[in-house]
Amino acid sequence: MALVTLIPRFVPAYIVDKVHFPNWVNRWLNAIPYAALGALIFPGILTVIPDKPHIGFFGALTAVVLSFFGLNVIIAVIGAILTVYVLTM
């Protein structure tokens, strides 16, 4: 069982250096992690407080603005948490 799951995990690691994709494919593949994060995070933003989705939106907006200025991820997350906390008081 371990061998069956080990092969599909290690084969791409050896093949990826030998296969060269066009630039548009590389850009598309590089965008996948951002799309997956967006799909996972966005529903949580809208359901922070079920009857007040705008509070989650303002928290996310705070995180985006802080990230835009190049601050650390931890600072952006703490800023979003503080924004939601202050708006719920």
Describe the fold and architecture.
The chain has 2 domains: 41 residues, no CATH class; 43 residues. Helices cover 79% and strands 0% of the residues. It is built from 4 helices and no strands. The chain starts with a helix and ends with a helix.
Briefly characterize the structure.
The mean pLDDT is 89. The chain is 79% helix and 0% strand.
Kindly estimate the percentage of residues that lie in beta strands according to DSSP. Answer: under 5%
What general form does the structure show?
Answer: elongated
Tally the helices: what do you get?
Answer: 4
Rg (CA only)? 19 Å
How many E-type strands?
Answer: 0
Helix-strand makeup class? mainly alpha
Distance between the termini: 52 Å
Largest sheet: none
pLDDT < 50 runs, ≥5 residues: none
The amount of helix comes to over 70%
Total count of domains? 2
Along the chain, the helix and strand elements come as HHHH
- Nearest-integer average pLDDT: 89
Keywords: Membrane, Transmembrane, Transmembrane helix
Protein name: AzlD domain-containing protein
InterPro entries: Brnchd-chn_aa_trnsp_AzlD
Pfam families: AzlD
SSE order and pairing:
Blueprint: H1 2-15, H2 23-46, H3 53-68, H4 73-88
Helix pairs in contact: 3-4
Which properties best describe this structure?
single chain; 89 residues; mainly alpha; 2 domains; 4 helices; 0% strand; elongated
